[in-house]
Amino acid sequence: MAQKIADMTGAEPFDGFKSSPEGGFKAMACAVIDCGGTARIGVYPMKGVPTIGIHDTSPAGPLAQFIREENFVSGVGEDQITEI
Question: Is residue 8, in this structure, part of any structural domain at all?
């Protein structure tokens, strides 16, 4: 999914476990996550990065206060990513 978004936008995808973009969180257009851990789903919204979860997950845990409809969506598949 990250590659599809990158192809559509001209952005460069990266694996957040192995690297980070030059410019840090402010340089990220979005984060695509593949786990439902409460820390992972909350850290990117907390840092102001729109977050796309591939698993259907509800906000929970200590970072749930940062997860809002404007910055987090879950249960998303590649067929739901379209250019507007």
Answer: no
Please check whether residue 18 lies inside any domain of the structure: no
Q: Is 35 a catalytic residue?
A: yes
Q: Among 8, 29, 35, 39, which one carries the catalytic annotation?
A: 35
* Total count of domains within the chain: 1
Report the 3 state secondary structure along the chain: CHHHHHHHHCCCCCCCCCCCCCCHHHHCCCEEECCCCHHHHHHHHHCCCCEEECCCCCCCCCCHHHCCCCCEECCCCHHHCCCC
Mean pLDDT, rounded, for 14-28: 88
pTM flag (> 0.85): yes
